């Protein structure tokens, strides 16, 4: 019987050094990199989503970037499908797949499968969005409390996106969405999963985020957004909701000063990193490393962990 294939998943908040570690491991272990990030799947949105440049990739093949157009809806289920295909392709060539994980939901979809829930209904969603705009998200939360009290208890009253999905599922399924959770899952099999987490000291991480935003702007982030808009991408495209892109879009379209937007982008990115950390800390069997120490020491410890499996 064949032994399970290894799959390395590098977890961590934005700017924690995931890409650098992934490339180092791929170089040492005959690997290829698969991105697990809900923003990097969109074409043309490169600088602000932190896609590794050609120089940063160091000749290592990268997968699962640039899969969708900016106005497309790309779901965790879509990611699960293409990611499993990519893993089979990578391992069929005798390579070690190394995931760089920025989006915890995508990792969960890949490793654990997804609940068997009804497909989206844009008609229902649009009706609920209008209600939220007219009466506020708390109004929708009260509706959810009546049709699915269990979901309402775990979803914040102002989390409109999750509230809408829970109501939508309850309406389409004819039963509370909470009763469907855990059904129809299809976990990934045939792999030994090795999770390595990067958790730099909070102050150092936030300082790195702030400088990284400035580096992205210096690298031509504004020019990138101008090029995207000139190419005819709608300003309301989903990808323009990403941190930084929304602010730069407003700067370009409404000729607003860019300088006040910079600390806003930095703050939004720090908050996002905090949410990532909260999510990843719930991951089972993760081996956590303290980033921003000696890079060589972090890489060596990661190699030791992988070799122990």
Which features does this protein show?
six-stranded parallel beta sheet; 2 domains; globular; 50% helix; 13 helices; single chain; Histone, subunit A; 309 residues; Rossmann fold
List the helices and strands and how they pair.
Elements lengths: L4 E7 L6 H12 L1 E6 L17 H4 L4 E2 L12 H17 L3 E6 L2 H9 L9 H14 L1 H11 L1 H6 L5 H14 L17 E8 L3 H17 L2 H10 L14 H9 L7 H20 L5 E4 L5 H13 L2
Parallel strand pairs: 1-4, 1-5, 2-3, 2-4, 5-6
Helix pairs in contact: 3-4, 5-6, 5-8, 6-8, 9-12, 10-11
Q: From the 3D coordinates, which CATH architecture of the largest domain would you assign? A: 3-Layer(aba) Sandwich
Q: Determine the number of helices (DSSP H or I, runs of at least 4 residues).
A: 13
Query: What distance lies between the first and last C-alpha atoms, to the nearest angstrom?
Result: 18 Å
Strand order of the largest sheet: 3-2-4-1-5-6
Strand content: 5-15%
CATH top level of the largest domain is: Alpha Beta
What would the CATH topology of the largest domain be?
Rossmann fold
